[in-house]
Amino acid sequence: MLEKQHYPADATDTSYVNDVCMVQMSQSIAEANTLLEDRTEQHLHRGLHLGLTFAPSKSELLYCLPLTSKFKNISLSSHPPLQVMNTTITPKRQIKYLGVYIDESLSFLHHASMAASQGSRVLGSFNFLRHRSRGIPAHIAHHLALTAILSAMFWASPAWWTGAPMLISTLKITYNAIARWITGLPYNTRLTNLLTLAHLPPMEAYLDYLSLRYAIRLHFLPDHHALSWPHPDQMTRNNLPGLHRLYALSKHLVLGKLKDQTSTSTADGVPKIISPNPDKTTSPQKLHEKWLCSLPDHTIVVYTDGSKLDSGATGCGWVIFNIGNQQLFKIKEGSCHLGNCAEVYDAELHAVQEATNALFTTTIPPSAIFICIDNQAAIDTLQFNKDNHEYTRHAIDSFAQLRLLGWDIGTVWCPLHCGIPGNESADTLAKLGTSDPIPCQHAATTKIWLQMQARAQLLRCWKQELPLSNPSFTFPAHLHNVERADTQAIW
């Protein structure tokens, strides 16, 4: 670690560079130490002009020796120490880096023990909330287990989870204790019944799911990112964690061209307009038509929709109207097929992109454009685009050009399947797009689709290992009022 000395000493503007990792490979420990000392001192000298100095007390040294090495089991004091800036750093059996304990054999058994202990500590802090026949109901305990206990216990699991039996046995003790806390069942309960009633997935399947989701995120990283995409590595053992294992978990899903989330846009998003419909049930068609009648002439109203068949085929549709004498006049419409690797959410956003591009050829004088969408998540994405969605990025860039031409643009939530003609037309076109034999030029494998496939894979594995369960991350509503005494009597 590098830290900066302050003048005066009690200054609070602490500056430091933390978690600096230096790796050196060599034929011998002595040679590795010599090379590592030179590289480390060069690294430290670069920080001198910033006032950053070496902090020996926060530095650690780990020797990762081959399993067949004759030095593997000898005392650490027999290994030569590392000398950096006239400071001796002695080796350890394991070090902590970015919250993960790395041991000399890369077995991560020590980290699994620490993770299990962390889960037990968090569980212990919640124990008073649910004790015997008193306390919070099971569905609240289930929510806390997923969001607070397991998230702390499985922190950074893609970096250390390998599926090794010794990791499983270490973690399962705490995992089963969490299930008992949710259900109140005794120790002699069969584990299949315990996990089924606790509504928890099999632990190994859940950890594989977390690793797969992380692998999907890595596949969409920009080229300049410090991490790289998952890829095979013939030189690395299969039982070790890393990009090669993440590649093995995700290679059956990541097919074809991936949606581009590496480019960026500086254009502003589209503001949300207050919808004339407070909900889907309160006179949706009447209120929407009343709003349309209040719009001035030459206003553009766009309806978009997405559709997905059971076969996976996804399509989108859009229809553009012009307001005149309180009536809608259709000026353009269209649909396209996005292939089998996209979700309805993606189709909604692509429909906005296509409709926006079609507006450039209209001869109507610039006024206001209202884009009516029946998907709240798509509306939020068009406003902020936090995930850098490709279709949204293209649509926002087009919106910026339309604003320069004098158009004022906003999105409006529109209830679906409520008899609103524009929404019904867009829905029909979206269904038509699913049957188009030629995919759109923008069709690609989307991140949302991959995440949904990962979730579906977990649910299938969950059902296969626990046949009596109803796989879902939501606790069953019909079990919300079941008391602990009732679960003990049933099981």
Detailed description of the structure:
The protein is an alpha/beta fold and 491 residues long. The chain folds into three domains: 2-92, no CATH class; 103-250, no CATH class; 272-444, Nucleotidyltransferase, domain 5. 40% of the residues lie in helices and 15% in strands. The strands form six sheets. The protein has a six-stranded mixed sheet. A three-stranded antiparallel sheet has the order 2-1-3, with no helix packed on it. Helix 2 (109-126) runs parallel beside helix 5 and helix 7 runs antiparallel to helix 14. It is globular and about 90 Å long. The two termini are 54 Å apart.
How are the SSEs placed, and which strands pair?
Elements: E1 2-4, E2 16-17, H1 29-46, E3 52-54, E4 61-62, E5 82-84, E6 87-89, E7 91-92, E8 94-97, E9 100-103, H2 109-126, E10 130-131, E11 134-135, H3 138-153, H4 157-160, H5 165-183, H6 191-198, H7 203-219, H8 243-250, E12 272-273, H9 284-293, E13 300-308, E14 314-324, E15 327-337, H10 344-358, E16 368-373, H11 376-384, H12 390-404, E17 408-413, H13 421-434, H14 447-465, H15 484-490
